[in-house]
Amino acid sequence: MTDKDLRYAVRGLIKRPGFTITAILTIALGIGASSAIFSVVNAVLLNPLPYFAPDRLSLVWTDLSNRNVRDFPSTAGDFADMREQGTAFQGLAAVFTFRQSLTGDGNRPEQVGISLATPNLFSVLGLKVALGRDFREDDAVPQPPPPASAPGAPPVAAPPPLPTMAILSDEFWRRRYGSDPAVIGKIIQLDGASALVVGVLQPGAQLLYPPKANIERRPDIYTANRIGLDSAARVDHFLRVIGRLKPKATVAQAQTQMERLSADLRQRFPLKQTSGLALRVEPMQKNLVAAVQPAVLALMGAVLFVLLIACANVANLLLVRASWREREFALRSALGGSQWRLIRGLLAESLVLAAGGGAAGLVLAQLGVQVLTALGPTTLPRLDTVRIDVTVLGFAALATVAAAFLFGMVPALRASRPDVLEVLKPSGRSHGVRTGKWFRNGVVMAEVALSFILLIGSGLMIRSFLALIRTDLGFDPKGLLTFELRPAGLRQQQARVVYEQRMQERLKAIPGVTAITAASNLPLDGSDASVRWGTAAAMADPTRFRQGQFFFVQKDYFQVMGTRLLAGRNFMLADILPPADPMPGAPPGPPRADPAVVDQSLVARAFPGQPVAAALGQLIMVRIAGVGLEPFPYRIVGVVEHQRHTTLSEDERESIYVTGPVAHGKWVVRTIGGDPMRLAAQVDRAIAEVDPLTPTGEFKPMTAFVDRVIAPTRFALVLIGVFAVIAVLLAGVGLYGVLSSVVRQRTAEIGVRMALGARRENIFGLVIRQGMRLSTAGIVLGVLGALALTRVMTSMLVGVKATDPATFVGVGLLFAAITAIACWLPARRAAGLEPTAALREE
Fold first, then answer.
1. Sequential DSSP letters for 251-309
2. pTM for this model (two decimals)
3. Phi-psi region of 616 (alpha: psi -120 to 50; beta: other; left: phi over 0)
4. Which of 70, 260, 325, 756 is the most exposed place for a label (fewest CB within 10 A)?
């Protein structure tokens, strides 16, 4: 292909602006959409993680198979054994994240994200400290135990606690401290405890864990873990473990070592035997994207369908254009033009069209990336890194060349072999249209089939989305304003009760506020509050313990949240206050069992086949992380409906609610009269009036938590729906083009039929039937393709199967109506022909 071919192609296309613009825009849609989605594939699935040698990083998960629990955190004691026996690892680190109040640095108090980590976390990940120093092993020395005093001697003063060593994130350092290097060596207060700033981390550092790990991606402050690993309890699961394999080690070798350790732990600790503990090693990048990979690949497949349909449409346009140029090609061939010379010229046109479409497509792709990052769910890892980079440009270039070949080669081959004698005869005008009939019909059937598959996918996503939004949440999110409030220094139960009562009284005075409550965690906030629980029988048979969700709540929690009470009672003020001291000399009574409210799911599992009221008065044993080693008894005083706490699409663990001397960090304000966020500023000022030293966390409406859960399904629905609409429009245009050409080709035949007595409705039906035959054949192919391909969407669907008959029937009827409309215009034109004019035209 020479410059001369390209210049001639450009001149020819400029002379036909309508055809050229239509073809370029069609290709631009395909290239733009596919490039935008590929940018997501590239950022999420293909780009390596932003760590040193990320292919050697693995996550170590704890599974409790007998309790149907996967991806659980590890205990500190188990982690110590992993480091000792996991010789396939070059290093193993552990981390967990939470929120604390930052004070004492001369700035306004603020809630910050904290990462409690082993000192080797940054070396395992390959991250660098840009200012100051990294953690050292002695930064993790446990706090000294209180000294023991001799009998009868006065108590010995405890040594001052060791400060927590802290490293700031680069973003936090710049935002709060204005990039001041003098922050190194400064003492700050985290929840009232001293922390010494020793470093600032490199820019852009982040903790990339799957959303299920509940690890904050960009903590503000990293602190060294002073928990004594060797002496730590084996029942408190809170650490997320990450390891770097040795250069020649494999994941399989590491897994073998963790399996041996799992067997050893089960043998040494009966509780781990009854829970079915098993350690599992997963490559970090693979595990990070495992939940989203099917959806991302399904979207990529859908957009490639759009690109194929666009190519098919342009191929049909080129075939029609070639049919009107057949006399030109015949003359050039008769004058000695070679077949290759004709092919070269036509391929040059295809390449020019593809280049124009590719350039316009990149503009659309950039707009698409902005839309994707705005609509994308927060559970999609590294969404903020999606951009049009060199890799995406390379994909767009490759797609452009491939598109030029796909839509240009067949029309070029057909047009380069003209039947010179037939075409140059006076009656040979429509020969090219007739000879391309089977190809064009096949292309239209393929377009219809691909469009039908996309419509099926869109229909299934609509069904899933409707199922999600109809899910009973177990609470009413409308009108609820949430925020975090973590006062430091309130260690006494009575002081906390007084503080919370004062806060409630002040907040209730705000116009528009009707009620206030608080809890340790809120529904759908992304947190994990898992505990071990069982009935009294589980104390004798530990295999009966289950894993459930556990929440500390204020007494009016269920009323404010709008959760229905099914049996028994809600909490009362007496449940919060500590019990009175027994009278001197009074005989000891039975052990006190604090009150608990449970949900209907727990009743169904603990007391199967019994009404919810049967649970009232029953004892359950709950082992709370960080509070002793033995389970606490709780007596059930009420049963409420099940609240959705983690997902809307699957069965969840049962829930237990108690009240007592704990930090209720998540607060909820019920409002009236519109958007609850309008009261955020007033609530913030009211809190500052009660306690100016306690910072508030991020204000959010409760509906934001619901939106977060349904966002992945909505994201896939919107994209597949857009692709389906584009595909259907392109297929309809293709079908219209074929039938219009048929009408033009058969103008004389139609004139003869009408001259011999055929009525206009007969001609109308003739064209409609031909179009419906093409669309029916395409729909049949589409049904077969959808039955095979929509199975990859199974993980994306909620409440509907990939082979849902109602969706297939509904989409089939919808597509039949769409194709009927596409057939109507050319059929109407054919029926409106005058017989004499039709015969004269031929």
1. HHHHHHHHHHHHHHHHHH-HHHHHHTEEEEEEEHHHHHHTTTHHHHHHHHHHHHHHHHH
2. 0.84
3. beta
4. 756
